[in-house]
Design a protein that fits this description.
The chain is an alpha+beta fold. It folds into 3 domains: about 10-40, no CATH class; about 60-130, Reverse transcriptase/Diguanylate cyclase domain (Alpha-Beta Plaits, 2-Layer Sandwich), CATH 3.30.70.270; about 135-195, Ubiquitin-like (UB roll) (Roll). It is built from 7 helices and 7 strands, in the order H-E-E-E-H-H-H-H-E-E-E-E-H-H. The strands form 2 sheets. Strands 1-2-3-4 form a 4-stranded antiparallel sheet. The chain has a 3-stranded antiparallel sheet with strand order 5-6-7. The chain is globular, with a radius of gyration of 20 Å. Pfam families: RT_RNaseH_2, RVT_1. This is Reverse transcriptase domain-containing protein. InterPro entries: DNA/RNA_pol_sf (IPR043502), Rev_trsase/Diguanyl_cyclase (IPR043128), RT_dom (IPR000477), RT_RNaseH_2 (IPR041577), Viral_Replic_Matur_Polypro (IPR051320).
């Protein structure tokens, strides 16, 4: 069994939940490898994300090579970079808009041509990842603020919540590249689409 995450605010509740999960696994003849388990930790790496009390960040080992990642020279190279970038897109505001020049290269019958616009998009995305953005863990007991916007090419949405410091912090970003049909919508319809995507 892989990738089980149990979290709780209180240690007694946490131990009870952990016991229940372990019992269910045993009842169904599912087993865990002890060397792969962590119990009662305040920081863990889970599915490429570092989870700490109240925050989620990107895995530093995955980010280590981003600084030296050279501009792609082939469509395969573009796909490789976009595979990495798409995995962490919820950390980057307006990701779909920023990545659009690179995504264009992955469409059928598009000849590989590394333009200045694509080079800028590639380097801006790298810079955004290197800023090591941190997301606040959402709290269902607090109100959320949704900021949505739309351009000619994409929507951008950020979900925010007030943190312990009284400031608003992002809990996650959502973006959506418009289809050819959606690009013809009036701006108010594109902005409404941004809100519905949120």
């Amino acid at each position: 069994m892989d990738d089980i995450l149990i979290f709780s605010d209180e240690i007694n509740i946490h131990r009870l939940r952990t016991k229940r999960v372990l019992e269910r696994l045993r009842e169904n003849d599912l087993y865990l490898k002890p060397e792969k388990c962590e119990f009662e930790v305040a920081k863990t790496l889970f599915l490429g994300m570092v989870i700490t009390p109240g925050h989620i960040s990107m895995d530093e080992t995955k980010l280590a090579g981003i600084k030296d990642w050279e501009a792609p020279k082939t469509i395969k190279g573009v796909r490789s970079f976009l595979g990495f970038a798409n995995f962490y897109r919820k950390f980057i505001g307006k990701y779909a808009e920023l990545a659009r020049p690179l995504h264009e290269l992955t469409k059928k019958n598009v000849k590989f041509e590394w333009t200045k616009t694509r080079d800028i998009a590639f380097n801006v995305l790298k810079a955004k990842f290197l800023q090591r953005p941190i997301l606040q863990m959402p709290d269902d007991e607090k109100p959320f603020i949704i900021e949505a916007d739309a351009s000619k090419w994409a929507t951008g949405v950020v979900l925010k919540q007030q943190g312990p410091d009284g400031e608003l912090h992002p809990c996650g970003y959502i973006s959506h590249a418009f289809t050819a049909t959606e690009r013809n919508y009036e701006i108010y319809d594109r902005e409404l689409l941004a809100i519905t995507n949120a």
